[in-house]
Amino acid sequence: MEELVVKKDFTNIYTKDSPYEYLKEMKRLSYRIPDYTKPLYIQIAQQLVDKLKRPIHIVDLGSSYGINSSLMRYDLSMSELDQFFLRKDTPPTRHDSFEFFKKQDNQNLNFNFYQIDISEPALKFSKDVGLCKNSICVNLESDYQKLPDDFFPIDMVIATGCIGYIGYKAFSNLFELIKK
């Protein structure tokens, strides 16, 4: 019989006002999935921009403080985020974080991010530092009816680490909303 593996619970670090503890733990675990998915996401997103001839709207499920947004929009890596956020023993201020992203040379203005997550503090951080146009704090498995009828414009949906935590029901609910 196969042994069941229990997924790691990140609640204690995922409800902080800053990604500092989250990134510290992801670094400790050598979690770099966003680095690996970034080239594929950018390739697909750029094809959509070229085809639609306009900036596109990307919905990031389980957006984790806007990690995918920062990697894709500013051409950063997880290591570069670590270098900025973990350089001291305390988190950078929101203002410092906002300035860090604002000063990035490689800004792709063709990617507009909208985020869905279950962590209000993570979404607030992302919005405050300019990593998304808008966000909704909702559990797509059970509370999808809380999503507004005038949901974000959607050209592309991405998800990285949350795939291990959300199931088909969340995607089914999201796709039903998209069809409307």
CATH topology: Rossmann fold
Large-scale geometry = globular
What is the radius of gyration computed over CA atoms, rounded to a whole number of angstroms? 16 Å
Range of strand content: 5-15%
Would you identify the regions where 5 or more consecutive residues have pLDDT less than 50?
none
Describe the structure.
The protein has 180 residues and is an alpha/beta fold. It has one domain (11-179): 3-Layer(aba) Sandwich (Rossmann fold). The protein is 44% helix and 12% strand. The protein has 8 helices and 4 strands. The protein has helices at residues 11-14, 20-28, 33-52, 67-74, 78-85, 94-102, 120-128, 168-179; strands at 56-61, 111-117, 134-137, 156-159. The protein has a 4-stranded parallel β-sheet with strand order 3-2-1-4. Helix 7 (120-128) links the parallel strand 2 and strand 3 (134-137). Helix 2 (20-28) packs across helix 5 and helix 3 (33-52) crosses helix 4. The chain is globular, with a radius of gyration of 16 Å. The protein starts with 10 loop residues before the first helix and ends with a helix. The model has no long low-confidence stretch (mean pLDDT 89).
